[in-house]
Amino acid sequence: MWRSGLNSRSTTTAQALKEKKWDALVIGGGHNGLTAAAYLARGGLSVAVLERRHVIGGAAVTEEIIPGFKFSRCSYLQSLLRPSVIRELELKRHGLKLLKPTATTFTPCLDGRYLLLGHDDERNYLEISKFSKYDADAFQAPETLHWDSSFTYWMRDKLEKSVFWARCLRHIMVLGQKDMVNFMDLLLSPTSKVLNKWFESDILKAVLAGDAIVGSMASIHTPGSGYVLLHHVMGETDGDRNVWSHVEGGMGSVSTAISNAAIEAGASIMTNAEVSQLMIGNSGTIEGVLLADGTRVCSSIVLSNATPHRTFLGLIPRDALPEDFLRAIEKSDYNSGTTKINVAVDKVPWFHCCGSNNTEAGPQHTATIHICSESMDNIGSACQDARNGLPSKRPVMEMTIPSSLDKTISPPGKHVVSLFTQYTPYKPSDGSWENPTYREAYAKRCFSLIDEYAPGFSSSIIGYDMLTPPDLEREFGLTGGNIFHGATGLDSLFFMRPAKGWSGYRTPVRGLYLCGSGTHPGGGVMAAPGRNAARITLRDFKKHHSW
Fold this sequence. Notes:
FAD/NAD(P)-binding domain, 2 domains, 7-stranded mixed sheet, 5-stranded parallel sheet, globular, oxidoreductase activity, Amino_oxidase, FAD/NAD-bd_sf
């Protein structure tokens, strides 16, 4: 699926890198780095993207690990990609095709019941009524609050555009009191408190709570965990709010479409080009980068799509940065409890709660499937296990089956299953992820638990690919295995991201900018950091060159 010109650095490419002084360099060919490159090139700058791996995409990547099966190895669904980026870069013309699921969430229960939610309000009411008529009535109120109010539209716009808090406060002053109070309650309270106030049935609360713990080590009882819930419900697919879609060809197709737009605008993209050091002149100004193979690439502007930890503690000499800034970066929270398992199976899973064993994919298979997630207690216990240093005994799993809609990623009749599992500590107290037996034991635990809901799942497995927190760090550069380039707690959001006073994409090193998820507005396949950083860079470039 990759363009032949993107797969390797030829001798000619290496020579061209050395001989040219670029207007801007981008470290990392993840979706944000590619987005930044596209906007910079469209702004008239000569741009080179330097990607360490053999493929572009970062965590938004598709790879054929098992012959015939194409895995979205890290990110696995799309909703947060900003409509402005899709429109401005013409990503659909460049090959982006979103596949809207028939249903949105499916939660099977061991007692034979299930909760299947979708796009039809009346059908959702009947589904929730199976567990609580009170909740069916109440469900409409928070749904209206979160994705229909003018406040939410305002928040979505402000998260996309980096603005100072003083300006934000002026907007808050004109909000209705109810909207503002409800939002602050969601932002500051534990998710469990918010959901207990809204609903009574455990299964509905657990389904909604799942979005508040994605990619973190936070518990549903952690104050401020409601923000992650808000972060994950502000997306859309083709104008339909809070719909998470599959992408034809896997998540790598998002990155490929953005790279196509960047190349069309004139950007150059090099893979197998690992940056080992930033070159900084005596005046403290960026002069370019040094690659791992010794190649020096010159530019007075560098945008880093690497994590702030990797950028400032791995690529820059300590004496080039202020001590207070370094301390803030060193203290940043990169804890993650995520292990991603991508599975090739010879048939679609059958969930016994759905009745007859149909071999065809149904609406439930297109949805986000919640395994071991039918109760708040199980989510809490899974987190507590990890806080005790142990992989969860009953991990909370989000299962998706993209091949239920996308026929391009698996052989006929066979399927790709994605398992986003929590919680797994970076350094378990009872073993090591470097031990193959230990790794296999965790994978088999997950598969056996799925068997409780979908009998025969384990026996349908052809092979699998597993990424623990250390794997995510080593292979994809995600410090601590954190998928957001840093925790999304209240102390690391907005003007605090990546450090207090440095949310505006510029850094203490003149000419160096951040364009990844470690800066405002945060993680997910959103592309807002890349777009915003490029706009700031272009503004500075034009100001400097107008002297």
